[in-house]
Amino acid sequence: MSVQWLYHVFVHRLAERVLAEVQRKELLKPGDRVGVAVSGGIDSVALLRLLLEWRGELGIVPAVVHFNHKLRGAESDGDQQFVAELARLHGLEFLSGGDDVSAYAAEEGFGLEAAARELRYRFFRHLLVSKGNPGAAAPAHEENTDRRARRAAPPQPELLQPLSATEESQYPYLVAHDPTRMAHPEVDKPEVDKVVTGHTLDDQAETVLLRLIRGTGINGLSGIHPRILVEDSLGELGGEILRPLLGTRRRELEAYLAEIGQSWREDSTNFDHAFTRNRLRKLVLPLLQKEFNPALAENLGELAEIALGEQEYWENEIAGWMGTAVHWLEPEWVHHAALVRISLSGAQPSTSAEAELQSRIDSAPWLVANASVSRPWFLSEPVAVQRRVVKAIGEHAGIPLQFKHVEEMVGFAAEEGQGKELALPFGWKLVRHADELLFVTPDLRQAEPAQDYEHPLTVPGRAILSEVGIAIESHHIPADKFSEYNPDELLDLDSLPGRLSVRNWRAGDRFWPAHTKSPKKIKQLLQERHVAQPQRGLWPVIASGTEVVWVRGFPAHRKYCGKAGRPSAFIAERRWPETEST
Fold first, then answer.
1. Which pTM value belongs to this model?
2. Domain residue extents for the chain
3. CA nearest to 423, candidates 440, 398, 437
4. Beta strands 61-68 and 94-98: pairing type?
5. Using CA atoms, how far apart are residues 357 and 337, in angstroms rounded to an integer?
6. Is domain 13-304 given the CATH code 3.40.50.620 in the classification?
7. Are 292 and 45 in contact (CB under 8 A)?
């Protein structure tokens, strides 16, 4: 392969089309230092080669970015070596990182796909917000102060949040500043202005269709966004993540690589039907395109673009309402706790009760503040505005709201009677007054009993736990796929004593995690893990009949974990409402 061939002056017609799209949306500008996220697959390798054709026209400085998920052993390492060699051949800087996604998924209770995305995008943030930026890593002790300062602020546009100081220390990514060598961890991280990923129109179509199947709104229909803004820890813009290929089909990229003689790597997990997206890609979409509409992917892509425009309009409207019609105030009991701390001149709380209250405030998964809305104004607006105001308050406060909750609140606001209350997820409540709708945050001075919940779970299937803001999914794993999974993360379907349901644990519940000596009360297991209230009372478990067979964050039950040669269920957790799935 000659150097002359590598640097041929050839602009492919696909490159011209994508270049026009990049310029139309103003994604890149001269001088940008662009990290190209390359996994080794068709999409990302094609993106890199296209960028090499653009760089003179755009005036950008490309580098190659790779994250090793360590999910496929030698195959994953082979991907990294392939990408590193690709960077070397083109004289590009190679920036690499990696982490054990399986271990992280088990520790955090995530599914593999969600855990992989979390760590991959954490790496991107790491590159975009470098040590050279003074706001890159705020001291850990500033976290609670910063949270309190933002409590009464109106919501901001959706951004990719920065790394905490703790996250920075836990994930010391290796980077290379020169294409011929790997750098040592202590070398300062390089600055990257933007990271570009190879998401295609096919990915967009899959995302939109999957969200339609699971249930979504306008924001969900907007699918994969072409641009994500990344904040540093001071709230300043730290860079962008861009998707310049969202209008391009994967088959076009494959034909492009074949035409220029560029090889790529195949990910064996892309053929595993245990993953929902793979089943959608290999089974559902081809069927719909063949039987109903050959242009389905293009139509879904257009729908996503329309929905994105609608969502951007409504976000601007919501920002205005949240700054004028919605008022946030800390409850009096929080204000009193703050005064006590101030009177102590920065000392620690003087009593164990004060310390416990402060711990609950700092660890609350929601905003510890009340929201007040003018009821006459609210009722004078169209139902579309009412729904969005309620939804925006829930998102800002950290209340996971389903459509049924939003409809209940809209109806409740219009009913007669003052002082009435409506219970909401996470212990929040909506109080109706003559001139005011008051969203009241849970009173953390007393550890009130959690509201019990229970939802059926089929295999395969999904249960949305709006009470805790997650969805629990079960995936059927055939007997011949057993060896590809950790048995401790599987449930043996043949030995389960009854139908499955997801619920919060109850007093007296016991559980025997795999590889432990004996069963324990779930309350004791959670205390040993330092799970504090109110999260502890809402902690999800899966029961089979009357027996608990799975507890979030623990291995499967010793008696019911997966067994070779038998069908199993793999349990995965997703955040809900869903964030962008990429």
1. 0.71
2. 13-304, 325-440, 454-575
3. 440
4. parallel
5. 8
6. yes
7. no
